[in-house]
Amino acid sequence: MPYLSASDLPTKPAGERFRELMNRPGIVQLPGAHNGMAAIQARNAGFEGLYLSGAAMTASMGLPDLGIITVDEVAFFIRQIARSSGLPLVVDGDTGYGEALNVMHMVRTFEDAGAAAVHIEDQLLPKKCGHLNDKKLAGAEDMAAKVAAAAKARRHLYLIARTDAAASEGMDGAVARAKMYMEAGADAIFPEALNTAEMFREFARRMPGVPLLANMTEFGRTPFFTAQEFEEMGYKMVIWPVSSLRVANKAQEKLYATIKRDGATKAMIDEMQTRAELYDAIGLNQYEELDRTIIKSIVPSMD
After folding, report:
1. What is the average per-residue pLDDT within 160-174?
2. CA dist., res. 40 & res. 160, Å (int)
3. Apex CA 18: angle with CA 201 and CA 282, to 5°?
4. DSSP assignment, residue 271?
5. Phi/psi at 116 (nearest 5 deg)?
6. Which one, of 239, 230, 271, lies nearest residue 253 by Cα?
7. What distances in angstroms separate CA 161 from CA 59, 166, 194, 281, one per listed residue?
8. 70: helix, coil or strand?
9. Which of 31, 117, 213, 215 could potentially form a cystine with 190 if both were Cys, beta carbons 3.0 to 4.6 Å apart?
10. Could you give the residue numbers annotated as active site?
């Protein structure tokens, strides 16, 4: 019960706990969790860190991933995921929600909400999913200034700089930008939308000693690779950003079609989380037991 009872809360800031994960051998696997329940289920499956995707957040709100949502809306998702799972959370910070001061405000807000890490990208608004075409890039110096601003604002937040330059500027441009972002204060680099194993390997070869994040999104430009394959290619982190939302959405679509067809949910019962499973996942009995242990208020005597 990591949320209500202080004795169950982590004693170290989220960013420090994420750095400990990064210092371990092996690749850090970060499945996307688009809400608190998904975060609990990922934790129960054995994961030690999570990822919050801007595309998953916006889609869950019925919006496209075009930089529409605000810092405070993202903070709402961060709080529910961090408190429900207790795990270090890497957050998609899009373009930083503005220029240098806006980026600093984002960092402070995300850190206060419980984020462990954030990545910001070198696109211009309206930004796009990294696997779409016609992305517009910010100047490398402008992006480096945002990275420097983020580094100045953070206390413990792990800072990942994403570059979308490979599609338009080639490997040389992407590597040059990544090196500039590291000099500006980034802890790691996220090269987005690489589309062959050789591209992943080349980028890693040209960024020796730099922690790298790989994006294993479905239906994009990147072929399917396993976490082990990414590790062998030189990557320290891998995300599956929208997978949980895709599966949940498909199941909900089937549910609503069934209700419309049958006027009932009976045909879907075997595919549902039961009441007992739900209550077990959210710890209902633990919360009730905690409530029973609280000392009742004592009304003072008038004597």
Report:
1. 94
2. 24
3. 115
4. G
5. -100, -30
6. 271
7. 23, 14, 15, 34
8. coil
9. 213
10. 51, 65, 92, 94, 119, 121, 129, 162, 192, 215
Q: Which helix (H) or strand (E) covers residue 14, if one does?
A: helix 14-23
Q: Which residue has the tokens 């959405």?
A: 249
What does the block give as tokens for 153? 């604002």
Cα separation, 80 vs 166, in Å, equals 34
Q: Amino acid identity of 52? A: L
pLDDT tens digits for range 126-166: 665 655 566 689 999 999 999 999 999 999 999 999 999 99
Alpha-carbon distance of 12 to 3, in angstroms, equals 15
For the segment 106-118, the average pLDDT, to the nearest whole number, is 98
Mean per-residue pLDDT, 79-92: 97
Starting at the edge strand found earlier in the chain, the sheet holding 237-240 runs 28-31, 237-240, 213-215
Averaged over 109-128, what is the pLDDT? 89
pLDDT of the residue at 302:
66
User: Mean pLDDT over residues 186-212, rounded?
Assistant: 96
CA-nearest of 85, 63, 152 to 74 is 63
- Whether the CB-CB separation of 197 and 228 falls below 8 Å is answered with no
Q: Are 258 and 265 in contact (CB under 8 A)?
A: yes
Backbone angles phi, psi at 51, to 5 degrees: -130, 140
User: Which residues, 6 or more positions from 263, have their beta carbon under 8 angstroms from its beta carbon?
Assistant: none
At position 11, the amino acid (one-letter code) is T
**239: which strand partners?**
30, 215
pTM attached to this predicted model? 0.93
Asked if 34 contacts 89 with a C-beta cutoff of 8 angstroms, the reply is: no
Q: Which pair of tokens denotes residue 113?
A: 């909400």
Query: Nearest-5° angle of CA 228, CA 233, CA 238?
Result: 55
Do 79 and 86 contact (CB within 8 A), yes or no? no
